[in-house]
Amino acid sequence: MRPPGFWSLTPDTGDWRSTILTPLGSLYAAATARRLRRSGIALDCPVICVGNINAGGTGKTPTVMALVERLKARGRSPQIVTRGYGGTARGVMRVDPARHPASLVGDEPLLLSAFAPTWIARDRAAGGRAAVADAADAVVLDDGFQNPAIDKDLSIVVVDAWAGFGNGRVIPAGPLREKVETGLARADMVLSIGGPEDQRRFDRLWGERITCPHLRGALRPLLTGMPWAGLRALAFAGIGRPEKFFGTLEELGATLVRAEALDDHQPLSAALLSRLERDAASLNAQLVTTEKDAVRLPAAFRSRVLTLPVRLALDDPAPLDAALDRLGL
């Protein structure tokens, strides 16, 4: 499902729908607060949580990738614990990309498993224990900011710089899982992801509310020698903000003859892909998608769709490095 348009209004823009729904948002926020009062377990290694206050995609997956790469460069053996959103698996399972399809474990865990051992577990405490038993010396908790099952040593709240915190209201009146002030009071860092113009917008709308260290970064295409300039592309993406992916392709010089925005985590059926392939052929274009979408491609289509991966680049990683130093990592 796509979020309603009024969620993306700036906090100083009134809207009758968000006003009517605000009491329900207060109930949602209260339920989140009650859940967070539960006590969690302490693991025998540092736990770094990458989460958000917004519902939906903000850039957590590339942040987790960058974090585990940074930890490995420091000589650590991090493992990832995630819920496995979109997969059907139950219990605690270490993702095996050679055997497990995205339909079983979820697309993001399958992608993350290429960077570090990845556990899916709706019971995050059980997943954390499994990672420690598997010799993890650091656990990266993906999307666990509102989950109290594991005590966290460092919590990073990730936010899309352009979208910010939307209209500043809680679901269903807005896009937030909890109030901005409540969430940021538990955060050790905020990471806003976007280009310079997006970052200026974020600072203007939300900068005064950020009281913890504020990291800034952007998603950069991972260039592998593929000649994107001049390529006629029919691009499709089922991510939080597909337009960011489409814009990146255009910045690389591709000619975007069509952009198909899918729902986040939308299944890529053979029927859908056959239709996109026919459309691409009629337009003399190449199918292109994101790295996260690519793991959901049926085997028959994987060699016929180009993938554009992106990686997080931090403007100044010094505050993150200092926090990792304090944790002995």
UniProtKB/TrEMBL annotation:
Positions contributing to ATP binding: N54, A55, G56, G57, T58, G59, K60, T61
Catalytic class of the enzyme: transferase
InterPro entries for this protein: LpxK (IPR003758), P-loop_NTPase (IPR027417)
Catalytic activity: a lipid A disaccharide + ATP = a lipid IVA + ADP + H(+)
Pfam families: LpxK
Keywords recorded for this protein, A-Z: ATP-binding, Kinase, Lipid A biosynthesis, Lipid biosynthesis, Lipid metabolism, Nucleotide-binding, Transferase
GO molecular function, one term: lipid-A 4'-kinase activity
GO cellular component: plasma membrane
Pathway recorded for this protein: Glycolipid biosynthesis; lipid IV(A) biosynthesis; lipid IV(A) from (3R)-3-hydroxytetradecanoyl-[acyl-carrier-protein] and UDP-N-acetyl-alpha-D-glucosamine: step 6/6
EC number: 2.7.1.130
GO biological process: lipid A biosynthetic process; lipopolysaccharide core region biosynthetic process
Superkingdom classification of source: Bacteria
Summary of the function given for this chain in its UniProt record: Transfers the gamma-phosphate of ATP to the 4'-position of a tetraacyldisaccharide 1-phosphate intermediate (termed DS-1-P) to form tetraacyldisaccharide 1,4'-bis-phosphate (lipid IVA).
Record family assignment: Belongs to the LpxK family.
The name this protein goes by in its record: Tetraacyldisaccharide 4'-kinase
Species this chain originates from: Palleronia aestuarii
Gene designation: lpxK
